[in-house]
């Protein structure tokens, strides 16, 4: 009797695993966006895919905008879905700052998933993970 039950169980388990193969093989479903940087002379640096980056990260564009301006130490504006920075900023520096933003404000430190949102508790900004439920305070002085 147990052989029949075990056989049915094993078949069901194999069938369930077949449906999950893609998910199990794909270790990282989140690939961080890469800024598409364009230098316009020596006076301007443009991130052409700024709005796409914001959409992928599921964050408010003014938050990432303020973070980048603060970290890069320059002025800028958002025009036609692009971020225009004053001065010539190296592409490597922009990529490092976007990566730093993702580590600080997007990815959960517990499960390394990007499924997070901001919560405000009194004067503290909290990063809440929607995947694992973890909460952690954000220790950056940038205000939303």
Task: Name some characteristics of this structure.
single chain, 144 residues, alpha+beta, Alpha-Beta Plaits, 3-stranded antiparallel sheet, 22% strand, elongated, Transl_init_fac_IF2/IF5_dom, initiation factor, Translation initiation factor 2 subunit beta, protein biosynthesis
Layout of helices and strands, plus pairs?
Layout lengths: L1 H24 L11 E4 L3 E4 L2 H8 L3 H12 L3 E4 L2 E5 L4 H15 L10 E6 L2 E6 L5 E3 L7
Antiparallel strand pairs: 1-2, 2-4, 3-4, 5-6, 6-7
Helix pairs in contact: 3-4
The largest pleated sheet is described as: 4 strands, antiparallel
Strand order of the largest sheet: 1-2-4-3
Number of strands: 7
Strand content: 15-25%
Please state the overall shape, judged from the principal axes of the Cα atoms.
elongated
Order of helices and strands: HEEHHEEHEEE
Oligomer: single chain
Tell me what the CATH architecture of one domain is: 2-Layer Sandwich
Which structural class best describes the helix and strand composition?
Answer: alpha+beta
CATH level 1 class label of one domain: Alpha Beta
Our count of helices gives: 4
Please mark out the parts with pLDDT under 50 across 5 or more consecutive residues, or reply none. Answer: none
Q: What gap, in angstroms, lies between the N and C termini? A: 63 Å
Integer average pLDDT:
83
The percentage helix is 40-55%
Per the CATH scheme, the topology name of one domain is Alpha-Beta Plaits
